[in-house]
Amino acid sequence: MIGQHLPRRYHTAFGGTSGTMRPVGLPGGDKDGSLRTELAFFVVERSGGWLVRADGFVYGPYASFILALHGAVHEAQAAGDCGFASLVLVQSSGGQPYEAAWTYGRDPYPFADAP
Length: 115
Prior knowledge:
Elements: E1 9-10, E2 21-24, E3 36-46, E4 49-54, E5 57-62, H1 65-81, E6 85-91, E7 98-103
Parallel strand pairs: 3-6
Antiparallel strand pairs: 1-7, 2-3, 3-4, 4-5, 6-7
């Protein structure tokens, strides 16, 4: 289920402005045709554990990738409930593009295998 539905890939650096927020039209469009702000939650590995980064905020550290992923999905769900077009992005390995692992409004919340 994770990462199998969106071919979108993201390249980003975490210094300065990360470019994680941008206005987008939602798939299928809002009823009024308005734009919403996309907010991406990046799951990243750093010395000392896993982190979740989103628009200048850092969550964690988490002891494992799966805990960080669940934390990112929880925060993305909350952001989506507040009106953001939110998604969670992960890397398959260092230096590879980020891929969407979870998208608000498309993927189930919470995960069936939540810890």
